[in-house]
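Journal club prep — side note

Before the paper discussion, L.F. wants everyone to see what a predicted structure for a comparable chain looks like in token form. Sequence:
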Amino acid sequence: MNNETKKTETLIQIYKDDPVRDNLRALVHQMKKTVFLSPAILPDTPEAEEFRRLAREKSGEQLQLPKEAAPVPSILKNKDGVTFFPIYTTIEQVPKEPPYDVIVNIPFQNCVNIIMNGNMNAVGIAVNPFTDNLIFRKDLLEALRKEDQVLQAGINPAKMTPQQRKIAMRQKAEFQDLPSKIYKEGAAFIHQLCDEKETVINEIYQNAYQDMEYPFGEDDFSVMPLDISDELLLVRIDLPEVKESAQLCHRIYVTQNPKDEEIHYFTVERGRKKGQSNLCGISSDGRHIEYGEAPVEGAEIQRIMDIIEQKREQTS
């Protein structure tokens, strides 16, 4: 599962918990950047049979399909006999029955094109039909297609709502600006953070909001440096309450090893399910990393210490 898929799964759950228009827009925007999985069967051709033979010999490997063995995507009928094109975010979502020959990687826009050209006689797309069962019918897909045409023509699409912009600016502070500054400036910035605390964090958030009305103040943050050991300085940053149904952080933990200046950035984020929190992180190259569901608040620091120790063992 790559980073775009993880974001899509998070936004699916957020939309299911709170199916408002803004959450749907955010989900659709993310799906356009996501590659989905589609189980398919191969035609009865010599080239397809040769591919089946290779697949048996090289089980588990990724293989390139010949043009003469173009796969036929699977279809799904509901209890009323209505046909949908099923696509899946991960291999775990794909059912084992009925049997299929291959799993095809397919970008979301290609899924839209398959439905709109009418070759499958399906009324829409079903995303993770056996779990999330998120349905996109042709009328919605047509609206998405028109939006893409507008973008390709260079016309500016409808602007985000003020609420969407506020969420985006806060995400920018938590997932881009702050980790970027920590990794770029290193120990010097962490020492400044320990000394000036809430003033530093508030300034970073305020800068992220640019020309928008800034909703926070220093009193909305809490910064607590902790000298855990000679090899671990940990800074806990408590953030304003997350009221929106969006991927935002409850807390951030910054760690530094004073001996070798190794730095890590951890986040406790709103999870995919209502009331769930995930322990995640941002790497020095900007990648979003998931470590699973967050433990109870009192056990978060121990879990972070365990992760750091595991990373050291892997690199030693």
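L.F.'s comment for the group: The longest helix spans residues 162-185. Keep this in mind when we get to the figures.
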